[in-house]
Amino acid sequence: MAASQAYARIRAEVLRLVALIPAGKFTTYGSIALHMNVAPRHVASVLARLTEEEARALPWHRVVAAEGRISQGMEPSLQERQRSLLQQEGMRLDDRGYIQDTDAHFHVVGLRRNIRWSED
After folding, report:
1. What does the DSSP 8-state code read for residue 112?
2. Counting C-beta atoms within 10 Å of the first and last residue's C-beta, which end of the chain has fewer, N or C?
3. What pLDDT, on the 0 to 100 scale, is given for residue 40?
4. In a domain, 38, yes or no
């Protein structure tokens, strides 16, 4: 299977999993990645390349960096947008972007799946 086909499958699965995160909950790039058997950067890369239409339809803001923190790698305007959207869903964040009371808001993606994304 060509790399582009593998990427398309990974992208589709990331979008599917993100769409399943309920309002008022969050998960991390790493949790999705572990479930999918890919690197967290793959998940972040997919979400960073959403079209405007996908970004409006998908709850991308419910995916944060390790330890329940807004990614420091995003541009500040996106960080503020994510903070605002999470707060609208009832989550509290500290000044450094960490979600408070994470146990009450964490969405478990699922157990690790043994997925092979390419035929190599």
Report:
1. P
2. C
3. 96
4. yes
